[in-house]
Amino acid sequence: MDTWRVRPGLSLEMGLRWQRIEPTYTQANNMANFDPRLYDPARAVTLRPDGTIDTSRGGNRFNGLIRAGDGIPSQEVGRVITANSPEVQGVPAGAPRGFVETRNLFAPRFSFAWSPFKDSKTALRGGFGMFYHKFDNNLIFPLGGSPPFVLSKSFENGNLSDPTGGVASRLTPFVTIAALDPNLDVPYVMNWSLGVQRELPYGVFFEAAYVGNVGRHLVRIIDINQPTFEALVANAALPSSQRATTNFLRPFKGYSGINMRMSDSNSNYNAMQLYAAKRKGDLTMTASYTWSKTLTDAASGEDPFNKRFNYGPTSFDRRHIFVTTYTYRLPFFRKSSGFVKNVLAGWEISGITRLQSGQSLTVSGSTSIGTRRADYIGGDVSIPNPTADQWFNAEAFARAPDGRRGTAGIGQILGPGYYSWDLSVRKRFKVGERLRFLLQGDFFNAFNHTNFGNPSTNVSSGDFGSIGSARAPRNIQLGLKLNF
Q1: Is 80 exceeded by the pLDDT of residue 110?
Q2: What is the 3-class SS of the chain, one letter each residue?
Q3: Number of domains in the chain
């Protein structure tokens, strides 16, 4: 980093961060990952429609798996119970130890501060920065329970004295496993901002800024072994006695779900942010307002391979947020003395007031192949004066047909906002030279405003469009604290 003072009212900061990001790995290399590039359909096991494996047809149950590193080091073999088992030895080694490559990355920084006027009460500030996110340990931890190092067997008609003396159950696909995309990249965010700050009369500070960022290579989890939409529809159209199990329809035979972490998602955030603060006098306070929008395609959704289909507002997007904090020290009876001053002077009132718009919600519906996106059939979604019984226009949506995906958009419904006053009243009392009492009353949702929960957004539900819950009502706490 370097700071360059170009002139008395203008300074620049520039920098470049080098970051070496290494994955977490196990000391004994006792983990394996599923790599779709290594899966060979010619060596796949054969599944029966009931989801069991036909062992008479051959095939490799571990098709597509690869072990970490060069295998288990000789000094670690004694610590891995299954190290020399035929299952482990039958899976090739050679993947990076943490299943992703080490990265050497560079992240630039730049910012400036400019005071354009001689009174030094106005400042214009801006900046840009690039920030990488180190691979979490959570990326690799789920792989610890995957084959071939962890296997399970089932027996029927056995007993506790000899569990394996029963008849082995028919072989079935592995339960859902975790995996890492071999091409997993490092997520990063580019942040930028431009704002003006001004010192106002009466000790008030004000700031207005535009703030934005974009996220790239964000990690999401998708089941890469999902049956195709067409296969699910065709299977659901058959008589119930002829329908195959879901595992029979999956593309990678011998596996159930394969929840793979992939780094192919994006996000963007744009906001106007206003902030004011008063730090002097009996009344001190802050106030902030944010008008923003956050969009992403990181949601897994019903069609995880079509990111455009899942692009829309994030679950945490709140378009408008206003928050103010305040403390008022009552000025009364300050000049009194004795009992009057000790009891009536020195009271304080403080609080937090929050107003924010609601969450963006997506309408779904139950179909023959599960709950998925509903159809938007036209008309205004919002209604004037919504109530808990009817929060939006339910007639604008319908259950999607079995043959295609629904047309309702991501986040098409705006849920109820949030409005709350949390207040606190307190007074310190002095008794003698050593005793101090603090009497405090806290009032959460002080005016008992009803903050509704989200409405039902399943068009197949009997309460579709209505609200059946609310957040916490008013809560009062009284406390007395003694210091001695």
Answers
A1: yes
A2: CEEEEEECCEEEEEEEEEEEECCCCCCCCCCEEECHHHCCHHHCCCECCCCCECHHHCCCCCCCEEEECCCCCHHHHHHCCCCCCHHHHCCCEEECCCCCCCEEEEEEEEEEEECCCCCCCEEEEEEEEEEECCCCHHHCHHHHHCCCCCCCCCEECCECCEHHHCEECCCCCECCEEEECCCCCCCEEEEEEEEEEEEEHHHEEEEEEEEEEEEEEEEEEEECCCCCHHHHHHHHCCCHHHCCCHHHHCCCCCECCEEEEEEEEEEEEEEEEEEEEECCCCEEEEEEEEEEEEEECCCCCCCCCCHHHHCEECCCCCCEEEEEEEEEECCCCCCCCHHHHHHHCCCEEEEEEEEECCCEECCEEEECCEEEECEECCCCCCCCCCCCCCCCCHHHEECCCCCCCCCCCCCCEECCCEEEEEEEEEEEEEECCCEEEEEEEEEECCCCCCCECCCECECCCCCECCCCCECCCCEEEEEEEEEC
A3: 2
